[in-house]
Design a protein that fits this description.
It comes from Modicella reniformis. The protein is α/β, with parallel strands linked by helices. The chain has twelve helices and 14 strands. Helix content is about 35%, strand content about 15%. α2 crosses α8, α3 packs across α4 and α8 crosses α10. Bound molecules: pyridoxal-5'-phosphate. The site of pyridoxal-5'-phosphate has 11 residues, from α3.
């Protein structure tokens, strides 16, 4: 990488592939011979509509999204989806109940199930509660692991009662939950699901926040009701949020008793009906996302991203190219952290260690001595020195999330293996200063 670009290990907004930025720069003043910048075009122009459709089709191709799923580009980021899923899916379940003549008809009686495995699913749960939904936390990872350091087995969740009695009881009471919600990759805590939940009632759609690992590995879309992802980690710039929604979930009723109706800008049905052009969409963010998809689908660009050491991957594109590279990157970084004398990986459940966000703490206390007593002031100073020295070497944004502290390396698709190698070399070099 040339010296004018540094390595961005930030969790988001994250690194954008250099060839994407170069192409955007070339096209900045005159998009597609229109004589205007993309930002100046009408969102109702054929030129933009073509781009909007192309971007959707690219995503469909990359994630192998079946035809019964709709793709929407929304605004408001992940936080807005915390609310949007509550409104849309309660309105859908409410409609189902009315059709089947089951349930009391009050949306407050419809349960919504949440799996809490870290900061983001916890925030989504709080938002659902704030809106007055009947929230059931069916799994909370904190008591299992002391903090968010792993994913409890599905057999321990209260949805997955092996006898099915909980489900039957729900059905009888007309209280089938509107959805089961989880976050596939907890960006702050570095916990990533190694499985797709499968034991819940098949009548309950799975809703998943994939903001920080979408496109990093293949996913069977057919298992989900709704998937959403803010773009600013593994897709493109902040401003656009991708929503993938199963068509049948768009049948909704107007809710009464307070949560009525679904606000238009949160309404999946309105967005689908208008092909994401109900109002002025975040055009520039959609455009850059499309360039990122072009980059992922380009075999030459993917070979360059792999670097000269990986000739075996020369034919892979898209998610298949990304997953192979992401596994190599994460494996070598975890190994280096394990071998280091001062880095401690936070996530203890090894199967649930994220391949995208890798948090660790720093301590001079001997790692394998249970009686070693860490000196907090000394360790804090060491951590600050680590982040500052890394920055001076062009390794940016390694400080952990402000809510948990520590160090975190985010290594999304755009981070080449070379960037991870540079970080590993720095970890070894830093160690020399403290352990002679
Ligand atoms: N969900 C996940 C997994 C995230 O990582 C984030 C942000 O980092 C959010 C939701 C919130 O996204 P936004 O800042 O776009 O509202």
């Amino acid at each position: 990488m040339s010296t004018d670009r540094k390595w961005n290990f930030g969790a988001g907004p994250a690194m954008i592939p250099r060839p994407v930025l170069e192409r955007a720069q070339q096209e900045f003043l005159n998009y597609n011979n229109s004589g205007l910048s993309l930002m100046e075009l009408s969102h109702r122009s054929n030129t933009f509509e073509d781009l909007n459709n192309k971007t959707q089709n690219q995503l469909r191709q990359l994630l192998k999204i079946p035809s019964q799923y709709k793709i929407i580009f929304m605004q408001g980021g992940g936080h807005t989806q915390f609310a949007a899923v509550v409104y849309n899916l309660l309105a859908w379940r409410h409609h189902q109940n009315k059709q089947q003549g089951s349930g009391s008809g009050r949306w407050q009686d419809i349960p919504v199930d949440y799996v809490v495995t870290g900061s983001w699913s916890s925030k989504a749960t709080e938002e659902a509660k704030r809106l007055g939904a009947n929230v059931r936390v069916v799994c909370d990872a904190k008591p299992h692991f002391g903090s968010y350091k792993g994913i409890p087995a599905e057999s321990t969740w209260t949805t997955s009662d092996p006898q099915g009695s909980l489900r039957t009881a729900d059905h009888q009471a007309g209280q089938t939950p509107a959805y089961l919600y989880y976050c596939d990759n907890e960006t702050v805590n570095g916990v990533e699901f190694p499985f797709i939940p499968s034991l819940q009632d098949p009548a309950v759609p799975l809703v998943c926040d994939m903001s920080s690992n979408i496109l990093s590995r293949p996913v069977d879309i057919s298992k989900f009701g709704v998937i959403y992802a803010g773009a600013q980690k593994n897709i493109g710039p902040a401003g656009v949020t991708v929503v993938i929604v199963r068509e049948d979930l768009l049948q909704t009723s107007e809710l009464t008793d307070g949560l009525s109706p679904v606000p238009l800008m949160l309404d999946f049905k309105t967005m689908v009906k208008n092909n994401s052009l109900y109002n002025t969409p975040p055009m520039f963010a959609i455009y850059i996302s499309s360039l990122v998809f072009d980059w992922l689908l380009d075999p030459v660009a993917q070979r360059v991203q792999d670097g000269p050491q990986q000739p075996t991957n020369k034919d892979l594109v898209g998610v298949e190219a990304a997953v192979a590279r992401n596994e190599r990157k994460a494996a070598k970084l975890y190994k280096a952290l394990e071998e280091s004398r001062f880095c401690r990986i936070i996530v203890t459940d090894t199967a649930a260690r994220s391949k995208m966000n890798i948090p660790f703490s720093i301590s001079k206390a001997p790692k394998n001595d249970p009686n070693a007593f860490p000196n907090k002031a000394e360790d804090d100073a060491m951590e600050a020195a680590f982040v500052a020295q890394a920055e001076a070497k062009g390794l940016l944004q390694l400080a952990g999330h402000r809510s948990v502290g520590g160090v975190r390396a985010s290594i999304y698709n755009a981070m080449p293996e070379e960037g991870v190698d540079v970080l590993i070399a720095f970890i070894k070099e830093f160690e020399q200063q403290y352990f002679l």
